């Protein structure tokens, strides 16, 4: 017997057929003709007549503003709720970071950015089932009709027309529900929305997710430039630049391309006396790569050159490039990889009188440094004159009578004297070498429109390298900031001071020398704007650069960085910070609050000058 009891023998089809037949026979309104017609209609068409649900007309845009989960614009970004429904045909083309436009009825436009994308269920159904999964596994196509595709938007600015000029202001109004949104594809709208200047120093092309933003203009790409005139404040070159990137990220390639723009013939800056002067660039080069900027890039073909000319990008080797090679002991410099002129120089010990920390080393404490500055160096100068050499200074310290005299007089304890003597030894290969002193080469070293490269790759002594770089950079900074300079050429020339591997020289360390260096560069960074002095720092370890210097940097260019501490230290917005470890070579994030909103860029695929060794 069936578990269904009396329903076990139930035949639904038979029962229905018999019942329908009986009802038809007993119905007074039925007739053979009606039954035949009904039977004929049922047999001929078991379905419903299809209805066209597609709206008439042509779609404009990629979707509409929706209010299903609220529509709110607030001063606090966390309280803003702005979402858009994206139609099926446009879903594959939208990306996080893409820029969209939502018009207001009165002609103004909301410029916004996609910050999130999600699928949501169209109907209340459970698709986490075996049937749904196996059906999807056996088909090639995905049916999106059962799902909503929603984009979360971040309002960036409101665009409006002011006597024919497109301007922007902060977001102060909410768009209407069902407003049609479209992708931003006009150069003027995008540049205005992101506060990007039209003219200036070229850095790269605007991108989203590693793909260049395309417009309907020619060229279709959008160039990103740094402001470089006094119409809207000081040129950003004098408000300092930091390029941070790991090994293989393309930071040297990118740095060369940027420096090449500052060396363009038409690049000039007004000086206090009314003259327009092209800047001088001094680049400290630990890997011996920047002297190559003298030479053309053989891989730069005619077609690419025409593209550069159309966009106003300076390219080609810079003829006025000179490698000033520091003479250090018996170290020799080989320059088969470039054709720039070479000039040897040495650091005269006389420079130590103005910068005693050059021989302080990292081991002198405050007491020992005080003895060096207040007693030993003044006495040496009095005895040997301002041009006394390093060899004479070591001979001076070897005098036991001097040591005894200073100890008995209470001016310098004998232990302090011995500590100073030990720590100032070891500079025999740095000072007063067989070459012209840098102080006699200033007019050649700092040349308007010229690139001076100071290579240190051939020096194996890190202490000697640090001393040379800090001595030369201090000479430039001191003369730039002085009200009574010894070298007018430095004072009267706009100067860009570049330093590769800057973390080796501007690091935070507990030593007298490090403290003096940081103090000097901090002062240079603070006063650079009025003195036409710009710092151009390049590093793979930005976390090691002292905060006092870092805080003065206005433009930060970040390429691929794999170290979490390094990424955190560059202080870029969190939405861009998460992309840094995944960026390919040449991709970069630019954070320059006085120039634009934070943006992604792609640098040029080819170096504008020679780059790399065969």
UniProtKB/TrEMBL annotation:
Compositionally biased tracts (Low complexity): 21-31
Renumbered residue ranges of the record's region Disordered: 1-61
Domain (Helicase HerA central) ranges: 235-356
UniProt feature, compositional bias: Acidic residues: 1-20
A family per Pfam: DUF87
Gene3D superfamilies: P-loop containing nucleotide triphosphate hydrolases
InterPro entries (UniProt xref): HerA_central, P-loop_NTPase, T4SS_component
GO molecular function: ATP binding
Keywords: ATP-binding, Nucleotide-binding
Name of protein: ATP-binding protein
